[in-house]
Amino acid sequence: MKKLIFLILIFLNVSSYSQTIIPDISARVDTSKTAIKQVYNLYKNYLNSRPDSIYHNPNWNTKEAKQYLKGKVFRIDRSAIQMFSYYDSKTYFSYYKPKILQIDSIGSNRYQIKTIFAKECPDTDYKTFTPDCITKLYAVRDDKGLFKLENVISYDTRNWKTFKFKFITYKVHPNSVFNKKEAVKASSFCEKISKQFNITIEPFTYYILPNSDEMGKLYNYEYWLSYLGGQTLNPFKEIYTTYGNASYPHEFVHLLFPLPKDNISFCPMIINEGLATWLAGPSMTETFEHALTETSKTFQSKEKISLEDIMTFKLRNEFDNSILYVTGGVICKLVYEKHGVEGIWELYNSTDKNFKFVLEKLFGVPYDNLEKYVIEYIRDFEKPN
Q1: Residue among 324, 320, 348, 326 at smallest CA distance from 336
Q2: Cα separation of 320 and 323, whole Å?
Q3: Centroid of chain to Cα 297
Q4: Integer distance in angstroms from the first to the last C-alpha of the chain?
Q5: Mean pLDDT by 10-residue block, N- to C-terminus, for the chain (385 residues)?
Q6: What is the pTM assigned to this prediction?
Q7: Could you say which residues form the signal peptide (predicted)?
């Protein structure tokens, strides 16, 4: 009997995993029309073809797929970069059911597909977390007459104003303004970091956007619950910012410091973000010193703090990750004071596997001792009078 139950459970698990995802459609999607039916089938096939994986998906525009797969870091669907950060596609679609709201012709052989991902009958606690997003993709006929999917960014930014300043190409949203004085500050900051850490500056593109909704659209989101204020896509040499500003030093640090050669051995997030925070502050509007002062006050109100709790976000602010960023910034600052540029590079080239060993080597003390030292440094930074 136990063996029978076990086999049934295996069957149910396999059936659940291999279940075909069939997206619902709204009354606006008329699949009796040949082209719309073709686009619908294309999109359905895409949802069932491991969209969470980094590979040349057969449902995607070939030229665009090759472009996005160069670094072998990101998925070719820009919305998938965020969508599958915590879940694989099967799990995600089991939570958030796809429903196609629109399939509309918007140009010669070009259709838009808008899809809402929402949880059916959510519990009371989760009602405010659904829908998760509404995406938009394009389906465009290729030279063989077949529809293939595309990201929206190339088509939707084709008429945006472009400005070049030294090594930066600015693409400016119609509701934003390019400020040359800010571009001068941007290039000066990059040149300073380049000289300090002996980094070669490669040309890059900087998108100036007025708000997070407009940034979301370039990631194929018409609506996103979890939004970003700025991001660097290092393999593509692209920066996105939602502050309407031509200079974002925090993101410049992310772009200037190179990716690992194998695109796998990344340094821990606390160091990656800590380095950018130490050199440029945790955000567009806050300095490292101010953020350190605020984090110091938070630490003073806590009895027990560990780096593990900080790195796993058990200890964090309600609306930002400043505690992680600042703690990493302090580690970078202390390493630089002891070992200079060489110490920073050794820290930056650490991995999750050897992170503790590298810290022990750089600080010359056991991990538990340096953990206590870093936490006490932050706690004592802003002592009450």
Answers
A1: 348
A2: 8
A3: 29
A4: 71
A5: 38 48 96 97 97 95 91 88 90 94 96 95 80 97 96 97 98 97 98 97 97 96 89 93 95 92 80 97 93 95 93 90 96 97 96 94 96 96 66
A6: 0.89
A7: 1-18
Helix H, strand E, coil C: the string for 111-157 is EEEEEEEECCCCCHHHHHHCCCEEEEEEEEECCCCCEEEECCHHHHC
Q: Which residues pair with 60 in a beta bridge?
A: 149
Pairwise CA distance, residues 310 & 135, whole Å: 33
Q: What is the 3-state secondary structure (H, E, C) of the chain?
A: CHHHHHHHHHHHHHHHHHCCCCCEECCCCCCCCHHHHHHHHHHHHHHCCCCCCCCCCCCECHHHHHHHCCCCCCCCCHHHHHHCCCCCHHHHHHHCEEEEEEEEEEECCEEEEEEEEECCCCCHHHHHHCCCEEEEEEEEECCCCCEEEECCHHHHCCCCEEEEECCEEEEECCCCCCCHHHHHHHHHHHHHHHHHHCCCCCCEEEEECCCHHHHHHHCCEEEECCCCCEEEEHHHCEEEECCCCCCCHHHHHHHHCCCCCCCCCCCCHHHHHHHHHHHHCCCCCCCHHHHHHHHHHHHHCCCCCCHHHHHCCCCCCCCCCHHHHHHHHHHHHHHHHHHHHHHHHHHHCCCCCCHHHHHHHHHCCCHHHHHHHHHHHHHHHCCCC
Tokens of 364: 């010359």
Distance CA 43, CA 103 (A): 10
C-alpha distances (whole Å) from 98 to each of 84, 119, 220, 293 are 14, 9, 15, 44
Nearest CA to 220 out of 1, 14, 60 is that of 60
